[in-house]
Amino acid sequence: MRAAVLRQGRMVVRDDVAEPVPGPGQVLVEVKACGICGSDLHFAQHGEDLLASTAQLEGVANQNDDVDLSRDIFMGHEFSAEILEAGPSTDTYAPGTLVTSVPVLISPQGMDMIVYSNTTLGGYAERMLLSAPLLLPVPNGLDAGPAALTEPMAVGLHAVNTSRIERNETALVIGCGPVGIAVIAALKLLGVEDIVASDFSPTRRRLAAAMGAHVTLDPAQDSPFHQCRPAVVFEAVGAPGIIDDILRRCPAGTRVVVAGVCMQPDTVHPLYAAVKQISVSFVFGYDPAEFASSLRAIAEGDIDVRPMITGSVPLDGMADAFDELATPDAHCKILVTP
């Protein structure tokens, strides 16, 4: 079987991957589409730093403990797939059903996140295993490509839900990459009446407008905080210095939601937040209900993700796609179609 793997920081295609065999409670699926996530790009560049940082975490289970960067790494967690067969004693949807799922594989040994693994296949493969209890059938005849973007849309919905924003409050989204775009889509879904988006890239500003932003701003012209007065700020850049700049510039009482994941150490001035009584929330992932809500919103047309899909490549095109996604004006979301 063929699969693209991360090897020494580059994506390469293998044609000798063992065919996955579903166990009890599992299904074998054929991957139809898988989005390339920004976190995969970050992992390819900063995997060693990420593993070192997560190894120091306390109070949460560390799914990256067993990842060995010297071995091939399977990735791909934004997927839709067609059921081929079920494992022993497994009741599930019929073969041929298009499904998606939160990226978790349940086995007798426990739970494996379908994110970065030396052993657990992800969506950058022709076939993979999924957990039958976690499957969601794709409704309304939705195509496989848009269905694969359920996962990143759920990330945006979780950030917006965490903010507790009201419809009449102004939202400022800083950074209009895939995370920021997902936040904008969720804000529109919830009926927020004043959505402002800020990004240096004119291409990304146009995409933000297409996805629901009422106003788009170029921070190279002037600080967005000089042009709007947000109640909630969504940080979707994930680069050092951004959070501190937000704390320095935003109005008193602002609620700041950090959705961008910065891979490097960062510095903030707590005094800025204290004097202005700013609340800061860091968010990550989503819950199963938010995942299901995102799929329903896409399938019912409440979120149109098609403007986000700016390219499609086979497995053999993944190395070039990773390079192209480093340029913000070139693409937003490239789908892999194994």
UniProtKB/TrEMBL annotation:
<dbReference type="Pfam" id="PF00107">
    <property type="entry name" value="ADH_zinc_N"/>
</dbReference>
<feature type="domain" description="Alcohol dehydrogenase-like N-terminal">
    <location>
        <begin position="23"/>
        <end position="139"/>
    </location>
</feature>
<protein>
    <submittedName>
        <fullName>Zinc-binding dehydrogenase</fullName>
    </submittedName>
</protein>
<feature type="domain" description="Alcohol dehydrogenase-like C-terminal">
    <location>
        <begin position="178"/>
        <end position="299"/>
    </location>
</feature>
<dbReference type="InterPro" id="IPR013154">
    <property type="entry name" value="ADH-like_N"/>
</dbReference>
<dbReference type="InterPro" id="IPR013149">
    <property type="entry name" value="ADH-like_C"/>
</dbReference>
<keyword id="KW-0560">Oxidoreductase</keyword>
<dbReference type="GO" id="GO:0016491">
    <property type="term" value="F:oxidoreductase activity"/>
</dbReference>
<dbReference type="InterPro" id="IPR011032">
    <property type="entry name" value="GroES-like_sf"/>
</dbReference>
<dbReference type="Pfam" id="PF08240">
    <property type="entry name" value="ADH_N"/>
</dbReference>
<dbReference type="InterPro" id="IPR036291">
    <property type="entry name" value="NAD(P)-bd_dom_sf"/>
</dbReference>
